[in-house]
Amino acid sequence: MRTLARSYRGDMTSAVLPPPTRAVALSPGRVAGAIAQLAALGFVGPAVFGALFAVLGTGIGLIPVLGIGLVLVIGCVYALFGIAWVEAARIDGLYGLGLPPLRLRPRAAPGFRGFLLALWRQFIDPTVWRAVASAGIATVLGLVVLSIATALAASVTLAFSPLYADGDAVIDAWGIGLEVQTAWAPLAGIVGALGALAMLFGLGSLHGVISRALLLPSRETRLAEAARTSDAQRAGAIRASEVERTRIERDLHDGVQPRLVSVGMTLGLAQQKIDDDPSAAKSLIEEAHTSTKAAITELRQLARGIHASVLDDRGLDAALSALAARSHVPVHLDVRIDGRCSRDAETAVYFAIAESLTNAAKHSRAGECRVVVRVRDEGALWARIEDNGIGGARVLPGGGLDGISNRVLAAGGTVRLDSPQGGPTALEVSVPCAS
User: Fold this and answer.
1) Cross-strand partners of 11
2) pTM over 0.70
3) What does the alpha-carbon distance between residue 133 and residue 115 come to, in Å, rounded to a whole number?
4) Domains in the chain: how many in total?
5) 3-state helix, strand and coil shares in percent for the chain, rounded to the nearest 5
6) For the segment 62-89, what is each residue's pLDDT rounded down to a tens digit?
7) Are residues 405 and 236 in contact, defined by beta-carbon separation less than 8 angstroms?
8) Cis peptide preceding 424, ω within 30 of 0
9) Cα–chain center distance at 317
10) Does 66 reside within a domain?
11) Which residues are CB-contacts of 320 (< 8 A; sequence separation ≥ 6)?
């Protein structure tokens, strides 16, 4: 088995919920933190952006000559994403906006063409560019902060100048040719220091406003995203019900129905022979009885596939334990959840795990499976199912993975599949607990 910390090569579905809008509280602590971060960016930012644009220019110039130019350009695209990721994390940590972490765009097609398409989508991602713009503006503000901090230090020095300067001396205040007599130096220094502090506070507050405007979506954008998410969930629910109905029809048509027809025919033969050959009739009745018990078992399994009663009675942990006990593939179950989530969330995760174990037994040739279930800090019920089979799992219309994705999408969650050729196959499911 591979470790659980693996990158994902595909994204089956992704229901993205709009981030909450939170007002930026301009508390003194946050403003001071913003000023400190701006000063740091004033030192580091110019070097980072200068190096980035230098490498980008070199890469573009070398593309017609050497293949290394393309490598440099690709590296710059990922460097832009890195800058955006750090900036979004910095702003979220400073102001507590509840921003979702930035993610690299997954490949939508295999091979080098799929890589280039994903790279292009990454390059034109407006979220990344807004974060890069925020970092650029913060760098410019940082340079201004450094200048004002220098003026603040000069003002403090000016305020204390009578302690070391001659009383009749004329002092060059702030090094800009503005002469101040020593007697007036403390007043000029205090006024300059207060002005510098006010400007620093203003820049820190301005940084919060600009960051919020750039990184938080507008009300119209959030409403449009919420509408798209609602439409996707509705479509997923309809598709999930269609897939489930088709599965039930197939199981009834291919399993229970032929067995019941056979029972009826066997009982009809037994009725014809009961007078002439009681022994043969008895054997036929026993055969019909055995087939009837098998049909009842199949109906119970079919009903369990529609709804697991143990899930309502004893919770997800117990339901998964029963599921693992019935699995044809050995299952290592690791469930750590406190309390109960909503019925929709538990049902979606339960059936995702059940279908994954069924696929592992039927198609992947797996020797064992590992199932991990947690409730994450953001209030999502999360599960990962991994097998050591041959891999190559794909989402096909009407298939098991299609049913998983639609059921989870209908519950407002996300599904991620990683199944390279040669294995292993890993499926991650995350559903809001309160869905």
Assistant:
1) 416
2) no
3) 25
4) 3
5) 65, 10, 25
6) 877 666 778 888 888 899 999 999 998 8
7) yes
8) yes
9) 24
10) yes
11) 333, 335, 350, 353, 371, 373
